[in-house]
Design a protein that fits this description.
It is a single chain. The chain is α+β, with helices and mostly antiparallel strands. Strands 3, 5, 8, 10, 11, 12, 13 and 14 form an eight-stranded antiparallel beta sheet that branches. The longest helix is centred in the N-terminal third of the chain and has 36 residues, at 89-124. The protein is elongated. The protein contains five helices and 21 strands.
Length: 379
Amino acid sequence: MPALHIAMLSIFLFGCGGRGSGPGAQAPSLPVMKIERSSPVVQREYSSLLEGVVTVEVRPQVDGTLREIAIDEGAFVKRGQLLFGIDDRVYREELKSAVAARNVAKASLEVAGIEVERLRPLVKNKVVSQIQLKQAIANHRSAKASLEKAEAAVQAARINLGYTRITAPVDGYIGDIPFRIGSLVSKNQPEQLTTLTDVHEIRAYFSMSEVDFMHFRQQYPGSSIEEKLALMPPVTLLLADGSRYPLKGRLDAVSGQFDRTTASVMFRATFPNPDGVLRSGNTGKVRVPYRYENVVQVPQAGTADLQDRIFVVKVGEGNAVTRAPITVIDRSNLNYIVSGGLEEGEMIVLSGFSRLPDGAVINPQLAGEGEGFGEGKQN
């Protein structure tokens, strides 16, 4: 029957009948449901930004000209694989110079040692003074310190030479490469050569409101946030196109403080990513389950809104109806989760009650199991 005809029929039955049903008036047959308690699971969705488990900015640590770019943008590389090569000729010469200076320092140390050994018997036989031996020993110590300094210079030169070969610090995917062969690079430049992201796991960062955070703390067992995270069920990731990522994740970290401007706290969920389907910079939604134990549910279609309050129509003694406010604490699909105003065993009208006055008598028709729980108004 068209909706218009239903509305006109409702007006005829319940509007023209006045405030009540007169003697002999037939009571309207309306679908009703009996209130029962259940334990629904509510799925809440939070917009999230995805990042790899490790993101590294690859930067030069020495100055020079790019001689080689050994990888391409978007390529997967293994740890230790060559990424960039910087012209190393200057650094090879610096290493040679440092090695030569070290050899000179070694020779000076040997000469100083020989001088000490030469003076010891002379001092013993009182041929030379004790002061000359002390001076020779001091010169030997100075030569030894000079050698240590030269050794350090060799190591520094060798390290700088090694920096001309830039290798991957982790396994991962290469980002943009703004430089080309022949570009002059510097260890002080503001722009990185590229980024390298390890995405064998993906971390989804999202914000949870203060109210939801309080629900989270109340929902799960554990005396600390860490214990609650460990006992939480897996979470689901919805991709940007609305599809569901096939692998489940886990909530594993919560920020230590709330953002004062948004009154929200940052959560982190980690998802396995063995095939590299997810990349840093993707967006999605993390779906977090909340379970309510032993609560009342009513279909949203079986309620009415009036002045920021939500009402149901109860069926009382003699099948007389009366409107009653209820306290809604959450939604599960198209149902309201109710914390007050309804008790188990009570009966409510599911539809056709918009023009029923309080006290009107109906002929209740018990809805089949689950009827009315899958359709209705959506918010």
